[in-house]
Amino acid sequence: MGITYIAKGLFKGILLGSLPVLLPLMSGYLMYRLMGWGLRKVYKGRVHRVLHWFLVVAFTPLLLLLLVSIVLFIDSYYPQQSFNQTTWLHQYQDRYQYKDDLISNKKLIGKDKQKVLAMLGQPDSYRDGYELMRSSVWQYKSGCEPKRIGFLDICSTAQFNVYFQGHYVARCEYQQSIFD
pTM, whole model, 2 decimals? Predict the structure, then answer.
């Protein structure tokens, strides 16, 4: 079991380490073949080598940039969901998924403290040193939002803040911290 785990880790390390070298070589070869095929179709026969290599050198970086962009986009995507009170109340580590729905749809704006308390539950902390119902800011832990920069996984802890003006919600804010 231990040897297999080490072998898998070593293989993954070698693969990721060689990716900056292999990806340009593979995309260059692919571009060479595609340009050769395309030029033979257009010119019906022998392809001029200078034109062929010029097109390969010109378009390979564009293909490489496109491939890397697609991989990074797919790899960094995570879904946003509509607010679900049951999940919010019982699984605080998944609360970050509801931030966009709560903030952009203004689901809390204008609600009084009792309605917010019924909807979001007890806050994890509150500011001002007052008791809960006199505090102007309620803070809810929002779990660890997954972030990916290239092949690095970064966990940014987050909290959801509800700001009151009087007894009504004035605004909501989502704060992240990578270094917590």
Answer: 0.57
